Amino acid sequence: MTDLTLSRRQPSVWWGAMIICGTVVGAGMFTLPIVMAGAWFGWALLLLLVTWGAMLLSGFLFMRTSLHYPQGSGYDTLTKDLLGRSWATLNGLSILFVLGILTYAYISASGPVYQHSLNLAGLPLSTAGAKITLTLCVAAVVWLGTTGVSRLMTFCVLAKILLLILLFGGLMTQVSLPSLISAAPVGESYWPYALGVLPFCLASFGYHGNITGLVSYYDGNKRHITQALVLGTLMSLALYLFWVTSTMGNLPRAAFPAIVQQGGDIAALMAALSNHLHVSALALMMSIFSHFAVIASFLGVTAGLFDFIADRLGWGNSPAARLKTACLTFLPPLMASLFWPHGFVAAIGFAGLFATLWAVFIPAMLAWKAQQRFAGMPRSTLPIVLVMIFGVLNIVAWLLSWVGWLPTFGGA
């Protein structure tokens, strides 16, 4: 996303890393230990590390390809030029579906949270009013450009890290190592649950919609873009590892089926952890953390959606053009959230499948075609093959889960 006013000074790598980390780490991180409980700690760490490596690699492939195009060229431009109009259309529909569903989900989920907080602050807003207010605030930041997004994202990410340390620091000091490395119960193995976790891990490292914005933000500086991607994804990985260790190290594996039966949401998990922290302090910090987690991911996802729509329509970067793009980015999900506040539940299960296409397969295919076209493009087949294998594994895992051929743990 290009700023309305460009600075001659190259932005710090830190700002780009904050955009990536803020986009990746959101309220969805609370589901990780729940869906990973069957596979347990060892497999959870391995799957997170493998997914981080594969998704970072696919990000590099897309970045390398995009550097051979004019700044501002996004997924649609690259896909149409290298893979053809049919692939561009399919890829565009998948991006719009995933980012649109996520935007819709964040608006729907955050409305009641912010309504409660605003009412406590003396602002009597309805849930619809809170959704509209929050959406307008986020839209204004995204309309202003990458600098505004990165500054606010930095504040949110730093607040999330601080709150995580305060909230779960006590739990880390009480982690039970024997529980983390315990062998599977007699007659049961951990590994059959591992494959089903893979799509959740992929969805937890989605940032590719922000890469084209970073290319413009850093004026095509490959070193700075690379450093931002590495730093941002590493910070995300560290937060995930911290969270999974602190939860699994304090809650035995046998406790997770009950959490799943209670809905498998944040409230159920926090209730199980309540005996490890002071309940009132936990509730307060949990509420504050949820605000920062939602707003950071909301910003990151909508910034990526904004970039894609701007590239697809080619309206330019003037304030008026950006306003039209912002309207298309935010109004449809907002209206859908107002009229169908719970409708995203059925559709969001398919979001991971479509994300595999545009965040894994398409970057690998673009890199393959770019290597054949551009003389200066490094020719390396191994990264492309590894990313494609990772994508195939995710498709297989999703299909096997969909038909019920993979085991579930506690009904997860």
From TrEMBL:
- Membrane found in the keyword field: yes
**Pfam families in the cross-refs:** Trp_Tyr_perm (PF03222)
InterPro entries linked: Amino_acid_transport_2, Trp_tyr_transpt
> Would the keyword Cell inner membrane turn up in this protein's UniProt record?
yes
The regions listed as transmembrane in this protein's record are: 12-34, 40-62, 82-107, 127-145, 152-173, 193-218, 225-243, 282-309, 346-368, 380-405
Q: Where in the cell is it found?
A: Cell inner membrane
| Bilayer topology | Multi-pass membrane protein
The main location class comes to membrane
Which keywords, in A-to-Z order, does the entry hold?
A: Amino-acid transport, Cell inner membrane, Cell membrane, Membrane, Transmembrane, Transmembrane helix, Transport
Top-level taxonomic group: Bacteria
Briefly, what is this protein's role? Involved in transporting aromatic amino acids across the cytoplasmic membrane.
Per the record, the similarity remark reads: Belongs to the amino acid/polyamine transporter 2 family. Mtr/TnaB/TyrP permease subfamily.
What protein name applies here? Answer: Aromatic amino acid permease
Lineage from the top down? Bacteria, Pseudomonadati, Pseudomonadota, Gammaproteobacteria, Enterobacterales
